[in-house]
Amino acid sequence: MDPERLIPCPYDKNHQIRASRFPYHLVKCGENNKKRAKELATCPYNARHKVPKQELQLHISTCTDNQEPELFSGKLRGGGEVQGVHACFNTCLLLLTDLTCPGLGRLV
């Protein structure tokens, strides 16, 4: 993504923010627009995507950042066993015990 590209703010459509500043602006503008922030949901695939709560499921199904998550299992160096580790949206690892993934639903 071009860091100079302008992106409309989901909290105030009059705000046009450079892509390089967008994450910082989202935090600040969300704090300054608490009422609007309560109406929006965050995409589980890209935290920069803020959509009306009633449109979240549609957004998730069409999000361009939606990638098939990977499941792993195996042994740890110390000898313990990993029953399931989920590479959640290629950004974080969750040790699966009794968790629900926002993109996939219940995983275990």
Task: Report on this structure.
- This protein has 108 residues and is α+β, with helices and mostly antiparallel strands.
- It has 2 domains: 6-62, no CATH class; 70-106, no CATH class.
- Helix content is 22%, strand content 31%.
- The strands form 4 sheets. It has a 3-stranded antiparallel sheet with strand order 5-6-7, with no helix packed on it.
- Strand 8 (100-101) and strand 9 form a beta hairpin.
- The protein is globular.
- Mean pLDDT is 78; it is low at 87-99.
- InterPro entries: TRM13/UPF0224_CHHC_Znf_dom, UPF0224_FAM112_RNA_Proc, Znf_C2H2_sf.
User: Beta-strand level of the residues, as a percent range?
Assistant: 25-35%
N-to-C series of helices and strands: EEHHEEHEEEEE
Overall radius of gyration: 17 Å
- What proportion of the residues is helical, as a percent range? 10-25%
In total, how many beta strands? 9
Number of helices: 3
Low-confidence regions: 87-99
Query: What's the overall average pLDDT, rounded?
Result: 78
Query: Mind summarizing the main beta sheet?
Result: 3 strands, antiparallel
Categorize the overall geometry.
globular
Q: What structural class do the secondary elements suggest? A: alpha+beta
Number of domains: 2
Strand order of the largest sheet: 5-6-7
Q: Report the end-to-end length measured between terminal Cα atoms.
A: 35 Å
Pfam family, one: zf-U11-48K
Keywords: Metal-binding, Zinc, Zinc-finger
Protein name: CHHC U11-48K-type domain-containing protein
Organism: Gopherus agassizii (Agassiz's desert tortoise)
